[in-house]
Amino acid sequence: MMKKIGLTIVALCAFFSCNKHEKTTGKMDAEIETSQLFFNGDILTMDSEQPEYVEAVVEKNGEIVFVGRRTEAESHFPGSTKIDLNGKTLLPGFIDPHSHFGMVSNTMGQVGLNPEPVGDITNIDDILKKLKQYKEDKNIPDGQWIYGWGYDDGQLAEKRHPTKNDIDKVLPNNPVYLQHTSGHMGVANSLGLEKLEVSAKTKSPEGGTIARFPNSNEPTGLVQETAMYPFVRLLLENLASKQEEFFNTTQDYYASNGITTAHDGMTDRNTIRFFQSQADAGKFKIDLISLAGYAELASNLKDSTLEFKTYKNRFKVQGTKIVADGSPQGKTAFFTKPFLTEVPGCAHDCRGLPSLTQAAINDLFVMAYETDNQLFVHCNGDATVDMIIEAHENACKTLNQPLDYDRRTIIIHAQFARPDQLETFVKYKMEPSFFTNHAYFWGDIHVENLGKERAEFLSPMVSAARLGLKPTNHSDATVTPINPIFTIWTAVNRVSRSGVVIGKNERTTPYQALKAITANAAYELFDENLKGTLTEGKLADFVILDKNPLKVEPIEIKDIHVLETIKEGKTIYTYSFKN
Fold first, then answer.
1. Mean pLDDT of the 279-304 span
2. HSE toward the beta carbon, residue 476, CA cutoff 13 A
3. Average pLDDT of 293-297?
4. pLDDT of 67-108, one tens digit each?
5. Which residues have a Cβ under 8 Å from the Cβ of 450 and sit 6 or more positions away?
6. What is the pLDDT of residue 334?
7. Buried/exposed 328-339: b ≥16 CB within 10 Å, e otherwise
8. Distance CA 206, CA 307 (A)
9. Which of 22, 102, 451, 571 is most buried (most C-beta within 10 Å)?
């Protein structure tokens, strides 16, 4: 992640003003009409509550024009080019419910510091060697910033964050900032802290923490949540010149994973302009959906050049992203009950912290709801979900709007939403976008930090679907790799690094896991009349897999390969068996 409902696409577009999808150029209309007929495989429509297969799908001029029996397809479209699937599986193209396209692109200009299975970092010494080698290999002069990404203190042998003193040993003359895998904190060396004017006299900002050495005010280099914002802002500014250089490689990376609609989960105004410029130049091979940042909500709403919910040459800004708390593995998510293990910078009642005050969140909700601007809210801890529900109720009361109006406010992650909160989502027509990759990458750590009961209810896809919600499931790249097949695997198996099942009752079926990145994902983004299912009139966005996720052993799903990705009838990726 819907059935036919009797309204035309044109009428729905007029109602929602969000499902327009302009062609990149006018060339298609002038071309001789051709069609492609796909047959002889497992063609899974995703257009029902239970799996439904058809014998053939026909694509013409970028749209699906037939779904059904092969004999009828051949009769109605006799001149079609026939595409024999040879027993492979054809699905709607994968829709990315939440990742960070821009950050994925930016990592191409940074030092990779991920642990296995993404990288090879096992301890702090490995990090230092990588940093030193990077400076030498790239001939980076003294004084120039060096950035790294993806380190995970929970997977380091030392079980701690590196400090400024560690980094200073190998890079004393370059400012350095290393991004934690969660994206909610990072570590700077002494020169990096100096550049951002962080010292023993600097107070932690509201909603953030500057970590200190024991019995001292001296910063360790670790900055969490709002305290890291100046470092990330500077990182983005410094890497902005490389956006165009890495843009095409990034969308090819998404396409290689079967994704025909990508996501940029929080986009500043300058990057929105860059994306639109690339779209207008006809450089998009896939669709890209962006979320504007909440700090710019007021100015964005006043900007007549920024139109929300409308595709322009395969790019649209759908709504606004609010970051309401931190990360559970980083112990900065906001919970109603405390963490069970030591939390850096906290002495007692350590429940994490919200990134914004209730009053600030309330104001953002009122502003967005008044202008029908769709909100996507980052919430990991249950206490933060309570804050969001309160903000929703306050905005509806303030604006005299119904609580159950179809705004589709999306709770991004909703990792540890409680059962009663899921019921409230149903009542208020909110939708959760889960993150089951956590079960694999940090499931064992969540058991330690939060206890078995809370850990096993992380990303409760089964409970949500049982209530009638349409949950999606995402990678949050760069937090975990872009890989929808792996996301299906984690939703179905919920196996941790150590092989333990994290919440056996929340293991979903392969079909429900597929819906989360096709039909449900389209619904989340108000695109359900354009994509997400194999339905006549929708875009011919397809992915072809070597095996059917519904027909292999659940534990083997992660070994399935994307063979081909097709965007509006055009192949944009083909698997090389040399891989």
1. 97
2. 23
3. 96
4. 999 999 999 999 999 999 999 999 999 999 999 999 899 888
5. 328, 335, 339, 340, 416
6. 97
7. bbbbbbbbeeeb
8. 32
9. 102
Question: Sign of torsion, CA 192 198 200 205?
Answer: negative
- How far out from the chain centre does Cα 123 lie? 28
Average pLDDT, the chain: 92
Q: Which amino acid, one-letter code, is at 85?
A: L
Q: What is the pLDDT of residue 13?
A: 35
Distance CA 105, CA 363 (A): 32
Q: How far apart are CA 142 and CA 129, in angstroms?
A: 17
- C-alpha span between 392 and 100 (Å, rounded): 25
- SS3 assignment for 284-326: CCCEEEEEEEHHHHHHHHHCCCCCECCCECCEEEEEEEEECCC
Closest CA to 45 of 60, 25, 66: 66
What residues pair up with 462 in beta bridges, in sequence order? none
Q: Which helix (H) or strand (E) holds 454?
A: helix 452-456
Averaged pLDDT for residues 256-275 = 95
Band of pLDDT at residue 179, cut at 50, 70 and 90: very high
Q: Per the confidence metrics, is the pTM higher than 0.90?
A: no
Name residue, tokens 């096709």: 518
pLDDT at 187: 96
Which residues is 226 bridged to in the sheet?
Answer: none
Other CB atoms within 10 A of residue 199 CB: 12
Kindly state the tokens that stand for 63.
């749209």
State whether residue 513 is helix, strand or coil: helix
546's CB contacts (< 8 A; 6+ apart) are 88, 89, 560, 561, 563, 575
